[in-house]
């Protein structure tokens, strides 16, 4: 029986300050937590049993978001990783849960358009100890990379190579059979003190194991940086948005154009909203322009602002002659532009931030 292992621990240091109060896997893209897309994709493969690796610090928030997995017809078990000691350490932590089962390992902050069906079918037919998902990239020095032969069998792995050896970056999805456990037992911590999954796969290769790779031909986002998160938001809004304006009060000379989704209890007064965009429930928009690629959470207030290409989380207010673009704004934030019209600004704010902008 195939299981899934989703990694939702870690500290999200590259996404601070927001990840100081919210796990990076729960940051919403197009108003849906990243890890929910992961669960949808796992469910589409017919996998029922999912182990979720959580940390002691953020695990409760992940549990509250995913619950028992029933909304996806999944059976979720939670496994606490006491410290962020590497991807292979996460597998080691889940050893009792995984047992002798083969499993799909999925990093909970990754988003991909690639259908995993062919990759899974190939693995289940047998012959490989592991199948690794890879993506051809322009900047392989940022990633672990796979050196492959003409048949897409992996010859070796190199972590963040200083010199070019391959353009195939390792994406955060892996299929393993039980042989990976023995390989993990035989590796030692890396220079950064972690048990690396790349080292475990390399050990599997050294012992004569078969490791193949499957190529991602669509998009892939490792949402560990603000820029990647905003790009993922743009792509998902562009590809999946539909027009759904229900239970919304639209007054004055307001216009809602294109593929815009607006939740129950929201109101649009004297404003323009241009899709693709999504506004949650209880959002109040007054005398504002909400441009394309904007995602606004529940119970937000936008009064006298221009907003484009930005993610705003729940319970935040933006008021008084603001022009905000390419920004990430946490929960319960309050931003005001002051008395004078201001230039375009870009911000990256954690929860409960208060900002007042003024120009002299």
TrEMBL record:
Pfam family name, one: NTP_transferase
UniProt KW Nucleus keyword: no
Residue stretches making up the Nucleotidyl transferase domain: 3-237
Molecular-function GO terms, alphabetical: transferase activity
Cited InterPro entries: G1P_thy_trans_l, NTP_transferase_dom, Nucleotide-diphossugar_trans, Trimer_LpxA-like_sf
Transferase in keyword set: yes
Swiss-Prot/TrEMBL keywords: Transferase
Signal peptide (residue range): none
SUPFAM superfamilies in UniProt: Nucleotide-diphospho-sugar transferases (SSF53448), Trimeric LpxA-like enzymes (SSF51161)
Protein name: Glucose-1-phosphate thymidylyltransferase
Source organism of this protein record: Desulfocucumis palustris
Lineage: Bacteria, Bacillati, Bacillota, Clostridia, Eubacteriales
């Amino acid at each position: 029986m195939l299981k899934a292992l989703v990694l939702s621990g870690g500290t999200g240091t590259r996404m601070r300050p927001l990840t100081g109060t919210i796990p990076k896997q729960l940051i919403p893209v197009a108003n849906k937590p990243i890890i929910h897309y992961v669960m949808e994709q796992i469910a589409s493969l017919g996998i029922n049993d999912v182990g979720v690796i959580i940390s002691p610090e953020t695990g409760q928030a992940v549990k509250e978001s995913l619950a028992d997995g029933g909304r996806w017809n999944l059976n979720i078990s939670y496994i606490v990783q006491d410290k962020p000691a590497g991807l292979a350490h996460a597998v080691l932590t889940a050893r009792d849960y995984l047992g002798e089962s083969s499993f799909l390992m999925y990093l909970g902050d990754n988003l991909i358009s690639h259908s995993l069906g062919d990759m899974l079918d190939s693995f289940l037919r047998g012959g490989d100890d592991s199948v690794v998902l890879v993506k051809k990239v322009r900047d392989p020095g940022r990633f672990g990379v796979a050196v492959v032969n003409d048949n897409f069998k992996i010859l070796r792995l190199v972590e963040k190579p200083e010199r070019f050896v391959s353009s195939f970056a390792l994406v955060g999805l892996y299929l393993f059979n039980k042989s990976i456990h023995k390989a993990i037992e035989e590796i030692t911590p890396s220079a950064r003190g972690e048990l690396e999954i790349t080292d475990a796969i390399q050990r599997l290769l050294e012992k004569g194991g078969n490791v193949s790779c499957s190529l991602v031909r669509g998009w892939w986002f490792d949402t560990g940086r603000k820029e990647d998160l905003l790009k993922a938001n743009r792509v998902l809004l562009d590809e999946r948005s539909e027009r759904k304006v229900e239970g919304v009060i639209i007054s004055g000379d307001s216009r809602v154009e294109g593929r815009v989704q607006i939740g129950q209890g929201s109101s649009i007064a004297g404003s323009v909203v241009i899709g693709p965009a999504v506004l949650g429930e209880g959002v109040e928009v007054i005398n504002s322009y909400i441009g394309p690629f904007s995602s606004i959470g529940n119970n937000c207030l936008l009064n006298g602002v221009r907003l484009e290409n930005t993610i705003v989380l729940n319970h935040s207010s933006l008021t008084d002659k603001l022009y905000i673009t390419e920004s990430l704004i946490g929960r319960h934030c309050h931003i005001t532009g002051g008395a004078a019209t201001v230039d375009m600004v870009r911000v990256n704010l954690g929860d409960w931030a208060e900002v007042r902008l003024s120009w002299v």
